[in-house]
Each structure stands twice: as C-alpha cells, then as structure tokens.
Amino acid sequence: MHVFPGLPRSCPRRLRSAALSVLAVFATIAALVVGVGAPQAAAASPLPCDVYAAAGTPCVAAHSLVRALYASYSGSLYQVKRASDGATANIGLLSAGGYADAAAQDSFCSRTTCIITEIYDQSPRHNNLTVEGAGGAGAADVGAPADALPVTVGGHQVYGLEISAGMGYRDNSTSGVAVNGQAEGMYMVTSGTHVNNRCCFDYGNAETNNKDTGNGHMDAINFGTECWFSPCYGQGPWVQADLENGLFQSDAGYSENTSDTGTGPLPFVTALLKNNGQNHFALKYGNAQSGGLTTTYSGGEPTTSGYSPMHQEGAIVLGTGGDNSNGSIGSFFEGVMTSGIPTDAADNAVQSNIVSVGYGGATGSTGTLNPGSEISLRATTSCCTGDYVRHQDNAAVLSPVTSGSSSLDKNDATWIVRRGLADSSCVSFESRNYPGDFLRHYDYRLHRQPMDGTSRFRADATFCPHTGKSGTGTSFASYNYPTRYLRHYDYNVYIASDGGSNDFDSGTSWSADVSWAVSSPWAP
C-alpha cells in the first residue's frame, strides 16, 4: 500500500495425520457449523489448515507463533536471535499439533533480549517470512521483540508477534500463492487493542519488489483505524482489504455498511478476506474468544480500473503495506492463506476452532508475584483500602472496585505478572484486557502502553518487589529509579521518592501509599 491517497523452510510434512480421514474432517466441520461437538482446547482437531484442505482449498501459507495449524505439524514455529551473541534458535511445539514451547524461548533469551527473525510456514509450500527489506515507502525493517506479547492460548503461556512502527516481515519468492487474478482466501487472528491509523498493518498477498506497482497488485487483510475512503462508520478498527492504492470496505471503497462500526477494543479478533480475483471479494470479522463471524461486505471488486480482474504478484507481507509503508502497529497470533475461496462452512469451522483454543484465557495462577500469576493491586493506606490500580484512558489511576463493579472495571484492575522486562529477578505488569500493554512510568506517572522493545521501555516497565515500607504488603521500586516506589497520590499512580519537589513526593503517608496488597484478580 502506498502512503499517498490517489497515487498511488522447514521439513516436508503431510497436510493431515493418517488417522484423520477426509470424511472425518467433513463430519467435524458439519458438527462445528451447527454448534455441536465444538472441540475443547486440549483436543482442538482438526485444525484450521486441516479444515480448509478438506474443503478443497488447502493452505499455501500457515504462520503462527502460538500453535500448530495442522493436527500433524511438529516442526518449528519461528526463529529468535539474541542480542548478547547473535545466536539463533528455532522455537517449536510442545507436541505435534500443539502449542509453542515458550519455555525454550525464555531459556534461550535469559539475561538478554531476543528478536524474531523468521516465521516458518507450516504448509508444504515453505513460504517462510523473514524481516522485510527496504521498499518504495520505507527503510528496511527490524525484527519484533520476542517477549513483547505474552499471552495464554490453549491454557499455555506463549508469545504473539507485536509490531511497532518500523517492523515487518515478508517473502517475495513464494510457492502456490495466488497471482494474476487467481482466487484465494486468508485470515489472521489479531487484536483490537493495539492499532493505529497509519499505513499499513497487512497480512496477505503483495508485490514481489517491495514497491507499489499499481491497482490490484495486492490482496491483503488490513486491520487498523485508517479510513482511506470516507465515510467510515464508528471509530474502528475495521477489517479492510488492501488491494493497493486503497483500503477497501466495498466496491466503492468507502463503507456501504452503516452497522460496520469496527470491532472496538476486542483483545482478540479474527479478520478474514476472500477474493475470487475476478469480480467478487468479501470481508468478515469475529471475536476470537467467542461467537461466530460477521460479514461486513460481500460484493463486486472495486469499480476503479485495475481491480477486476486482480493482478496479484504472490509475495506475502506481514505488518506493512506492499511498498513497505511501515508506520502501522498491530498484533499477530496466527494466519493462513488458501488456494481458492474457502466455503462459508469452512470459515465457520475455523472460527469455531479459534474460539475453542481459549485465546487470553486464565493463566491458572492467581494472587502471587510469580510470573504468569493474575493479580490486582490494592492500596493499604487507611483512606483507600477498597481502591485498586486500574488503567483508564491509558493512565494508571486508583479506583474503587467491588463485586458489583462492571466487567470493564474489573478487567482494567487486573494485571498479569511477567518476568521483569529489564531484569528477570524483578517483575513487570501486563494489562489483562490489553494484551502486550504494560504498566510503565513516563515523567514519573504510570501509564498503560504497548511494549515496543526498546531498552528505555523495558527499564520503565520493570519494578523490583520489597517488603512493604509500612510493614505490610509489598513495595515496588522502579528499576531505573531505585529510590522511587510505586505510589498512589490524589488517585493517580506515580513513582515517588520519600520527600522531594513534586507534590507526589510528599513524605505524608508515603510509607503507606507505597505499600500494596497483592490480591486475587478481579477478572481472572
């Protein structure tokens, strides 16, 4: 996608295990579509590429950092490179058809940092994605930090891919991907909480030379809040089709569906695009944690010349536009591309499988400072023992939360303890309902912000526990300002010293204000 409006290989493997016959796959699809026999997280088979293969539209690309997308896949998911010595390691699965071995990443990257350098294609096509080079609209990208997006999937602690501006992945020499008007489908699981209005958080078919080569030379899912053609309804983010030189919500470009106001801040979103390459494309989305798919558009190709038929070139892009327009941000957990247009029944079965694995489910640990534990932080000062640290409009505040509080308030007041981003002997706090967002201080005040991988962010988001200064609870020293502790003052949250020039450094009740009760989470 051009930024100016108006201008514009892992080992061979079988698609399914021998024990999974085509008839069995279709039977399972039928059961899923009518809502019967949905698989549980521990036995989610068939997996998305098994479903699509059985429907006659096999995957030609299958990328995921969190799980296998074929029931029989047992290879690597992605590669990480550590900063300390430049060594690399492949991160695989706990078992065939299962979930990522995140512990292997934690061990390999211990006491240093890692970036993701390659995302392996699980399909027999071996369309692996590597860090994207320079393009017509952006300098060469950098790899995403490997630990920026911890998440629970299928009851396992794994990592997703968190894209900040200047990050992206690509394969310009692919096998089997649609070209020159051929039909294809694709989906990705992303997040509605980590988006912006810059070009272009895409996953799908792009140019092979990292440049804008004209209308119809892309066919990729776009997810964000950029409204290319007005009007767009609501605040977004929207699932759109990046077909080059436009983010399309319909054949007219702009939204013709007043009910499509975007997904809002859903933590996990299924985004789906289908295109026959000639005269029809469709857009769908769903909550990746529950329910089915909603079709927001199904109709003709864009009426502007160049889109009917399409002129896809067959490269695969993730995180940027086709010409490496790389100002966007976004989250990616899994995604596939198919040969041919999948049936609606197959799409529905895939959505059922996605829901079944439990994206963002409970970690299984609560109320402690052990990594992976879900907690709420309660004030211990006598004035405020019913108040908790919660995020509101991106800032950390102190607010009362009770059993009668709204689900939103309870989620905002729940945090997941993670290994300290700057020091594993300390802790960091990830938002429960904004995956990949952490508590960090900026200008002494605490905010909820997405982890960008920088050393500054890592230090600002790391806190070291000590016995409570008041003699009760726990106090948390700032990693990079060790004489300053997490403190509530006038219902805001700061890192504060015991006495100083700022109001929030006042010595009055300082010991109590910096002492916190680590309690059970309001929203496990």
UniProtKB/TrEMBL annotation:
Residues 48-359 form the Alpha-L-arabinofuranosidase B catalytic domain. Residues 377-518 form the Alpha-L-arabinofuranosidase B arabinose-binding domain. This is Alpha-N-arabinofuranosidase. Keywords: Glycoprotein, Glycosidase, Hydrolase, Signal. Gene3D superfamilies: 2.60.120.200, 2.80.10.50. It comes from the Bacteria. Belongs to the glycosyl hydrolase 54 family. It comes from Streptomyces griseochromogenes.
